[in-house]
Design brief:
- The complex is a heterotrimer.
- Chain A is mostly beta strands.
- Chain A contains 1 helix and 8 strands, in the order αββββββββ.
- Chain A has one domain: Beta Barrel (Porin).
- Helices cover 9% and strands 66% of the residues of chain A.
- Chain B has a single domain, classed as Beta Barrel (Lipocalin), CATH 2.40.128.
- Chain B is built from 3 helices and 11 strands; from the N terminus they run H-H-E-H-E-E-E-E-E-E-E-E-E-E.
- A 10-stranded antiparallel β-barrel of chain B has the order 1-2-3-4-5-6-7-9-10-11.
- In chain B, strand 9 and strand 10 form a beta hairpin.
- The radius of gyration of chain B is 20 Å and the shape is globular.
- In chain C, strands 10, 11, 12, 17, 18, 19, 20, 21 and 22 form a 9-stranded mixed beta sheet that branches. An 8-stranded antiparallel barrel of chain C has the order 2-3-4-5-6-7-8-9.
- Chain C is globular.
- By secondary structure, chain C is an alpha/beta fold.
- The relative contact order of chain C is 0.11.
- The longest helix of chain C has 18 residues.
- The chains are: A mainly beta, B alpha+beta, C alpha/beta.
- Chains A and C meet through helix 1, strand 4, strand 5 and strand 6 of A and helix 1, strand 13, strand 15 and helix 6 of C.
């Protein structure tokens, strides 16, 4: 369960060590405001299993779309806000009991709301988001229920970017999403479109 | 203890990685030039950091103002609750080896003042400090319900050990401290509980990173892990669990 | 740059899951009795009393309280907050033998314990049951796993007196204990209600919420969360889901089915010897439904000849308003939790429930108990042995609500 976050930590340490060998940007380096739009499929693992629905697999497939707005001053760090939408699981299943033999349709969604910090060295960006998720459930079992709840969580992300134009670059990103209270770990390979909104 | 060991391991990993970096830089300049430059810059540059234990130039001071966020133990508060506080930190060089430090932490309900003295040693790379502070704690909350005229006061001795490494762009330091309670008193309405006395209540480990953020503005960031039987952050809740818990705290402060 | 590392490290540690969790308690859900003939209730009940701890005092304290609960011998150490559950049999030599476990309730430390009452030290009297009404001096000898190391330790208990028979309600919070007490049963469940008697309870408090389809259920929190239920899709406000949706898509954290108030009250009447139930509504919606279930249960208990009081808690002005508007408000008994000056304005109010942080309030308590309405007074929720002792000594309450009813049992009877 802790292997993946530990691996991410080691990756960050390694990147940071290598980045440290680079001279920091001088005071003449401009400041940037950067927007990131990221999309990709997402695999989720319910680390404590899924006792219900009966027989459900603990791993599920969904997708995510993340938006980050980052302020990147004249050193290596950038800070900003991260949000978006994640589909953790959507499925139809039958509950074998006396109340009904009808099928249930249910889905679980998450909207991360986080403070994000990233380190940008040349084309590599490694970052972490701290905050929480607004988890939303949609449950259609005879009648439809919809409910939400905020829980703390984290996102790790690492990307490599190719510059397409002066203000536009395209990246390949790995995103790891962790909802600690609920024990859901999600991994998403993503396409990361970065655009420099403002340079000063 | 596993989280604390993990933090130690991570700190060692950072120090190890710094060795590679230093080796790369040492190839660019002769060893003697490097040392001479470092000696000259030592006192001036180190005055910029609070957590880093390099000696301060006598008469110089550093001040930080920021926030910290503790994640309260879920079994006690029955949900995920982060508790914020405002932190002010001050350090002043008394001699080439001694410095005075003081921290103030408050969120109105919970207030801690801790002045202390520390001995600093080491060079521009690796440095260390050993110090001792006296923590004065006072808390009062009267919001009705669970928090009905609750108050607490405590005095504790806080010995601290710091190890730091100054990189090109960042100073990393690891601090280990414990809280030895000299006096404690809790009042809940008209009821009184003397609490623990002459006992080590908690041990805490702090990993701090201090570096430039933008322009000449510097920041201190990091986290503390407190291993405690009665976490001070939840003094207003009566903790009935006879078990040590780990309370993580994140901090972020700007240098004034 | 290192900010990333700090945050990453923080995240890893924060998410490691083990940091703020309590240790789990290794205690069996059912105690197996040793080989031999079962001990009948009349014989077992003779063992109830206060015992002096002759050996093992450093672990269990100087006094232990023994109760005979539904065929099992349970021991309670108030000062040390230790609970012991054992099941017994009569051996061929007329000694009584018991096997079970002990549990440090606040730290989750557990271990095995074996007890014996030799024939000449009370075993023969236990085996004789009703045939022999002598008041033997019981000596209980045994061994228990050393909680501070390897091996086992000896324990010797000598019965010094019988239990105080005055009416006093030992009330378990959330039907006996919260999930954080790690008792192997979920809070506010039927299983916890059954177990509450072994913890020493003769009364329980349960929390009430209302589903989307107006069914009153047992639930403490306003929202479903991993603290209370295991599920993929049941999360957020309790009032967002119908009972059918909750039951088909979630379980309480120890696997039990979430009970309705009606099911709970029927269970209490049919399957326990509890004498009082305190209903604690968390929302003002559905008060009329809750009172209907309360009234039906009172009638059912009366028909069965079962002695049971059910009181409806009034913890806030909003719930009091809803209570006053409900058609059955005058047909049930209520407990008011706010200022005692308002008690007389609530016609069906039978009890006052002050928060313990307001102090022991001896004079106020005596005034209410001895006044024209003869109110009961139940302070809540006291979990510290020191404070509990103050409340037991400084005023004469009719009962106390606690998350540690086993501790209250030990302290109350050993006074």
């Amino acid at each position: 369960m802790r292997a993946i976050p530990s691996a991410v930590l080691i990756l960050l340490c390694t990147c940071a060590s290598r980045a440290n060998a680079q001279d920091a940007r001088s005071g003449t380096v401009p400041y940037h405001v950067e927007a990131h739009i990221e999309l990709g499929p997402m695999a989720s693992d319910f680390l404590r299993g899924r006792p219900l629905p009966q027989g459900a697999s603990r791993t599920t497939m969904g997708y995510d779309a993340i938006v980050r707005l980052m302020w990147h001053p004249d050193h290596l760090l950038a800070v900003g806000l991260l949000s978006g939408y994640q589909l953790l699981v959507a499925e139809n299943y039958v509950v074998p009991d006396s109340l009904s033999s009808g099928s249930v349709h249910a889905s679980l969604h998450a909207m991360p709301v986080m403070f994000d910090v990233s380190m940008q060295v040349r084309s590599l960006e490694v970052g972490v988001g701290l905050g929480g998720y607004i988890l939303t459930t949609m449950l259609d079992d005879l009648t439809t229920a919809r409910a939400s709840r905020f829980e703390l969580g984290t996102i790790f992300h690492a990307a490599y970017h190719w510059r397409l134009q002066d203000h536009l670059s395209l990246g390949a990103e790995a995103l790891v999403s962790y909802m600690a209270y609920r024990g859901i770990l999600a991994i998403a390979p993503q396409l990361d479109i970065e655009y420099d909104l403002l340079t000063y | 203890m596993r989280p604390i060991l993990t933090a130690f391991a991570s700190g060692l990993l950072l120090l190890w990685s710094s060795g590679i970096v230093r080796a790369q830089f040492s190839s660019a300049a002769s060893q003697s030039d490097h040392l001479a430059l470092a000696k000259k810059d030592l006192l001036a540059d180190s005055s910029r950091y609070f957590y880093n234990p390099r000696p301060l130039m006598p008469g110089t001071a550093v001040m930080n103002l920021g926030i910290s966020l503790s994640l309260l133990p879920e079994p006690l508060v029955e949900q995920e609750i982060p508790a914020p506080a405002i932190d002010f930190q001050y350090k002043r060089g008394l001699t080439n080896s001694l410095s005075f430090y003081a921290t103030v932490s408050t969120n109105y309900f919970t207030n801690v003042l801790m002045p202390g003295i520390q001995y600093n040693g080491g060079d521009d790379g690796l440095s260390y400090a050993i110090g001792n502070g006296i923590a004065f704690f006072a808390g009062y909350i009267d919001l009705g319900g669970e928090f009905d005229r609750n108050s607490a006061a405590a005095i504790a001795d806080v010995p601290i050990l710091r190890v730091g490494h100054h990189f090109e762009q960042v100073a990393v330091s690891l601090s280990l401290a414990c809280t030895y309670v000299l006096y404690a008193d809790t009042h809940i309405g008209s009821l009184e509980d003397k609490g623990i006395k002459y006992k080590v209540d908690d041990v805490w480990l702090t990993l701090a990173f201090e570096q430039p953020f933008y322009g000449q503005t510097r920041i201190s960031t990091g986290m503390s892990l407190t291993y405690s039987r009665t976490p001070y952050q939840i003094w207003m809740l009566y903790n009935v669990f006879d078990q040590y818990l780990v309370i993580p705290e994140f901090f972020f402060s700007f240098q004034l | 740059m290192r900010l990333i590392l700090a945050l990453a490290l923080g995240s890893v540690l924060l998410n490691s899951g083990c940091m703020t969790e309590l240790l789990s308690a290794d205690m069996p859900l059912r105690v197996a009795r040793p080989a031999g003939d079962p001990i009948d209730s009349a014989g077992g009940a003779k063992l109830a009393g206060v015992y002096s701890v002759v050996q093992g005092e450093d672990i269990f304290g100087s006094k232990l309280v023994a109760l005979w609960v539904r065929g099992e011998l349970c021991l309670y150490s108030g000062s040390e907050v230790i609970f012991v559950e054992t099941a017994g049999s009569m051996a061929a030599d007329t000694s009584a033998r018991f096997n079970g476990y002990y549990r440090f309730v606040r730290s989750a430390m557990t271990g095995s314990i074996s007890l014996t009452i030799l024939p000449d030290e009370g075993g023969r009297s236990v085996g004789a049951g009703l045939r022999n009404r002598d008041s033997a001096t019981f000596t209980i000898r045994g061994t228990f796993d050393n909680p501070n190391g390897d091996g086992s330790r000896d324990i010797v208990l000598v019965r010094t007196r019988a239990l105080d028979t005055a009416k006093f309600y030992i009330m378990g919070n959330c039907a006996g204990g919260r999930n954080s007490e790690r008792l192997g049963r979920s809070e506010n469940s039927l299983e916890m209600t059954r177990f509450s008697e072994y913890l020493g309870c003769n009364a329980v408090e349960v929390d009430l919420h209302v589903t989307q389809d107006d069914t009153v259920i047992l639930m403490h929190d306003d929202q479903f969360s991993p603290r209370t239920v295991e599920t993929t899709y049941i999360l957020g406000d309790v009032s967002s889901f119908t009972l059918r949706q909750i039951r088909r898509n979630s379980r309480l954290i120890h696997g039990e089915v979430l009970p309705t108030l009606s099911e709970f009250l029927t269970f209490v009447i049919d399957s326990t010897n509890l004498q009082l139930v305190w209903l604690d509504p968390k929302v003002s919606r559905g008060v009329d439904k809750a009172l209907e279930a309360q009234k039906n249960a009172i009638d059912y208990a009366r028909r069965k000849g079962r002695s049971l009081r059910i009181i409806f808690g009034l913890p806030s002005p909003e719930i009091l308003d809803a209570f006053r508007r409900a058609p059955l408000a005058d047909s049930v008994e209520a407990l008011y939790e706010l200022l005692p000056e308002n008690l007389a304005s609530i016609k069906s109010c039978r009890a006052w429930g002050p928060r313990w942080t307001r102090g022991t309030q001896g004079a106020t308590v005596a005034g209410l108990q001895n006044g024209p309405h003869h109110y009961w007074v139940f302070p809540w929720t006291i979990d510290s042995p020191d404070y509990m002792t103050q409340f037991l000594n400084d005023a004469h309450y009719d009962g106390i609500l606690s998350n540690y009813p086993s501790m209250l049992t030990g302290l109350y009877y050993a006074r």
